[in-house]
Amino acid sequence: MYLNRDIITLEEAQGLLQGVNLQTKTKKISTAEALFYVLAEDVYATFPIPAFRRSGYDGYGILNEDDHSFPREFEIIDNIGAGSVLEKKMSSGQAVRIMTGAKVPDEVGKVIMLEVTEKLSDDKVLIKESMKNSNISSIGEEFLKGDLLLSSGTRLNAGAISLLNAFGIAEILVYQKPKVGILATGSELLKAGEPYVEGKIYNSNGPLLEALVRENGGLVVTLDNVKDELQDTLAILNDLTSQCDLVLTTGGVSVGDFDFMAEAAKAADQFLFNKLSMRPGSPTTAFVHKGTPVIALSGNPGACFTGFYLFVEPTLQRFVGGKSRLKQVKLPLVHDYDKPNNFDKYLRATVNFDHDSRLTVSQIGSDKSSALGNLHSTTAFFKVPHDSSIHKGEEVEVWLLPYK
Ligand SMILES: Nc1nc2c(c(=O)[nH]1)N[C@H]1C(S)=C(S)[C@@H](COP(=O)(O)OP(=O)(O)OC[C@H]3O[C@@H](n4cnc5c(N)ncnc54)[C@H](O)[C@@H]3O)O[C@H]1N2
Ligand code: MOO
């Protein structure tokens, strides 16, 4: 138990974590498994798209020299579906039936939409009028060979996966997801599915952290619980720090008789911090053991959630060559907040449009760090600076959460 702690600011704590050297690792993976991985290479177009003159419509292809004196009849010489090519050579007075996406023969200058034609027989079509556009996409209209498709550091979403596939790319180099160990501490913890026992609670922070890590690009390798016993806690931490790239714990960071994380921090290779001038999560603790950072978050669910975004999310991004995906903006608060505290507060919030289509921020649910009912609907945090109240309409600093 540590009562005398050196208090530092959120920014100082974030700076200490930033100073911890982290190893980024890369690997080749199949594009099919690459969703939400971060690219570790620039990817270039190996051919143009379209790769051939492509028909934009279902209709009839005609020569440029025949593009006059409508309505007139044409001889249909063939039918080109998408994926097929015309083997014959066309001459004046002939038309070729062609489908959207099919390769337009070199000699065809225009595709006339089906809607302005009338089929007279199997090999005769009446083209009633011409069209303003050629309805043919030129080679390289969207991408030229050598164009940069995706740059290193891009988080691969559905659109990126489709782009890689459009170029036939089956394998790419990505950053390995950091291996994260999660440890929920507390003799009061039950697992979901276990029968309720008086005085105990179900462990919700462990699964919360597991889901947050997965949402933010980490790989959860273990999810343990440990009772409030110092030796067990130290042994598990020793184990986790040798297996994982990052260890997260929840609970046991305060000054209770059974709060051992501050002691673990003092016993570790490198101590970072154990007291912050902020709420929630003032006793948040961090240290490095065996080269692995350990971020010990509060057991209070609201503090655990907030601490994840302020300390863990930026660390997870550093493992994949990036930085925090939270966006910092200033927005008007839609209500008063009149509970001044001697620490800066970071409150759970949502961002919405007001009647004038302006973005605004408002507190959501309880501001207590023990509250857990608003975590699923929180899309942002806003800051209430220490010793101050905020009046309705006043601008506050806001952090927008990713994935919301
Ligand atoms: N005398 C003082 N007491 C406290 C102080 C202080 O400065 N002096 N700080 C308070 C603040 S601020 C915080 S934040 C909490 C931090 O508590 P701990 O991280 O040590 O967490 P616990 O004591 O283990 O638990 C707190 C609370 O959270 C519940 N909890 C714990 N683990 C989980 C879990 N996995 N899932 C859901 N809920 C969990 C636990 O049952 C407690 O209710 O300390 C204050 N006290
Ligand atoms: O700093 Mo604590 O998370 O307010 O209760």
Automatic annotation (TrEMBL):
UniProt KW keywords: Magnesium, Metal-binding, Molybdenum, Molybdenum cofactor biosynthesis, Transferase
Domain called MoaB/Mog: residue spans: 181-318
Name of a matching Pfam family: MoeA_C
The protein's annotated pathway: Cofactor biosynthesis; molybdopterin biosynthesis
Enzyme class: transferase
GO term, biological process aspect, one: Mo-molybdopterin cofactor biosynthetic process
Catalysed reaction equations from the record: adenylyl-molybdopterin + molybdate = Mo-molybdopterin + AMP + H(+)
One GO cellular component term: cytosol
GO terms for MF: metal ion binding; molybdopterin molybdotransferase activity
Cofactor (UniProt): Mg(2+)
EC number: 2.10.1.1
UniProt superkingdom: Bacteria
InterPro entries: MoaB/Mog-like_dom_sf (IPR036425), MoaB/Mog_dom (IPR001453), MoeA-like (IPR038987), MoeA_C_domain_IV (IPR005111), MoeA_C_domain_IV_sf (IPR036688), MoeA_linker/N (IPR005110), MoeA_linker/N_sf (IPR036135)
Function: Catalyzes the insertion of molybdate into adenylated molybdopterin with the concomitant release of AMP.
Family: Belongs to the MoeA family.
Protein name per Swiss-Prot or TrEMBL: Molybdopterin molybdenumtransferase
